[in-house]
Amino acid sequence: MRGESVDLPVEIPGSAPLTVRLQSLLQQPAAAQVEAQTARGWVDLAYEAAYGERYAAAAEAAERGLQAPGADEAEIRLMLLRILAGVHEMRGASDLAAPYLKERVALLRQLGRTEQAEVEAQLGSMLLREPDRVEAEILRRMAEELDDGSGPSVHRADVLSSLAVRSLHDEGPDAALPLITEACEILEALNRPQALAGARMFLAHAQLLSDDAEAALATADQVLSAPANRAVRGAMAMLRATVHHQAERTDEAVADAMTSVELYSACGVRKGAASAAALLAGIAASLSDTDTSVLAWRVAVQQAELGEFSESGMLSLALGQQLLDMEDYTEAEKVLEALSLRLAGGDSDFSTRGRALMGLGHAVTQQKRPLEAMSHWEEAAAQFLSAQESDEAARAHLAAGALAASLDRVESARHHYERGLSLADQGEDTDPLMLLQALHSLGHLLCRHEEESGLVYLDRAMEIVTEHGTDWQRADITDTRARSLTALGRGTDAVAAALEAADMFADSDDEEAAADAEIFAATVLLQMRQPQEAETLFRMAAETREISEALVVNSLEGRAEALTALGQPDAAATLTAEAETLKAQLANEEDLPHSE
């Protein structure tokens, strides 16, 4: 059903910057209302509408084609009749398709193509849609009957093409490839360019599915080297973009994806345009081209919304996440809040709404509105539970708990941590690392507020990390235990745990965390009125490890306090002055503009 677009212009994308082309699509997203001048032109418009699942528009275009100049040309009329029959069949209206099939068969007989007429009369709608398994057997037998040595025939190519569709569904691309390859060979031999373009498009996709990317690329190039309507060109540009992306040929992938977006958008193939724009957005993001990525996500969302596809929610979510990654929190909030409100009250897509609320919470947290974030995350947890995603619900509660703890809202933090722990602890289905996070967080919170039961949770966390975690995570739990013991008034045990954590961090090549644990141990020693031991530890942490200047400041201030307690005020003053100088340098560095 692909034509040469005799009187329809095929838009060839320009060489303007991607951002300009994407902005243009955002400003003019709707397909222009093109009027064909001939029946040949209406064939293309009908095909494009059908490919874009705009079946009413496809039927109208084909009907107008039957009344247009050139409709008396037999091949054109046959194509229009097939489009009309196929469109109605795809809409589930076989009764409406039947008259067009009948008229097509009658025309074939008038043209003397009696064998083709008989085949189409027998098979009917099987040639217009994906056949079921029983119909596939009928098609298989028909293909064998037509392979009688009398030479290639269009109707055998039709039968092979329909059979290939079913074979792809049931057995995979390797089973479909020989069928559709033979169909292409027949159509090429018979010089049927319209049908050949459609068959080659199928062949290219089957080759890609069978992991023969270069063959798929070559087939797509064959299709694109001949005149074709915008839907076909858009599909082949998308395939090329996919192949180039997989091969890490990013320049070619970007160019083809952009071409596909423009062609699909121009002819109203919304789902295709949205997919191509999403691919372009992902590639741009991988290249750190955030401006292009955001614009491409916006185009993808807009195209999906114009097509009223459910995928628009996931695309909006991706746009929101891209904005969060760019630290454009105000714009991210707008996108994610609009998505959340749009999905509110529905009885489906709880998962997408939950993720939108999680992103929304992060956006408002960065804008210093933590209470709103906690509310969003609590609601997100409820959405995830409705979607039966207990792991995600647990993560939402743990995030809310961490935020509540940072605000010193102890009861709220405890509620969220306990709820997160309950959801994370799912027996055989438990994600051990999430359970570890829940136990760690709750244990630390309880110990900080002098509840010794928190140590039980930390002990269980250590059991899990020993079996499932890393050495660094074991060090982290040990460090938390040290700080928890301090809160419980067990200073000696806390120092021992902190020094153990320091050794473990060092073994994991984290010098900064090791020094931090040693400085913490020294601070506890100072509180226990052991300034000599404290001063030694403060000094060793700074002198024996490669650490940040911020930790060096902590070490200097700790040493100064210890020396004061030891009756050495002059030495303490020297260290204090050194610490103040270093802090001033750090403050100046923070004020300087940062280059990318």
Give a brief description.
The protein is mainly alpha-helical and 596 residues long.
Q: What does this entry look like structurally?
A:
It comes from Nesterenkonia sphaerica. This is Tetratricopeptide repeat protein. InterPro entries: TPR-like_helical_dom_sf (IPR011990). The chain has 596 residues and is an all-alpha fold. The protein has a domain at 35-129: Serine Threonine Protein Phosphatase 5, Tetratricopeptide repeat, CATH 1.25.40. It is built from 29 helices and no strands. It has helices at 18-27, 39-51, 55-67, 74-90, 94-110, 114-123, 133-146, 154-171, 173-189, 193-209, 213-224, 230-246, 250-266, 270-286, 290-306, 312-325, 329-343, 350-366, 370-386, 390-406, 410-424, 432-448, 454-468, 471-487, 491-507, 511-527, 531-543, 549-565, 569-591. Helix 25 runs antiparallel to helix 26 (511-527). The chain starts with 17 loop residues before the first helix and ends in a 5-residue tail after the last helix.
Query: Which regions are unreliable across 5 or more consecutive residues at pLDDT < 50?
Result: 1-13
Average pLDDT figure: 91
CATH architecture of the domain at 35-129: Alpha Horseshoe
Q: What is the count of helical runs?
A: 29
Helix content: over 70%
Give a short account of the largest sheet: none
CATH topology of the domain at 35-129: Serine Threonine Protein Phosphatase 5, Tetratricopeptide repeat
Number of strands: 0
End-to-end Cα distance, whole Å, is 52 Å
Q: For the CA atoms, what is the radius of gyration?
A: 34 Å
Protein name: Tetratricopeptide repeat protein
InterPro entries: TPR-like_helical_dom_sf
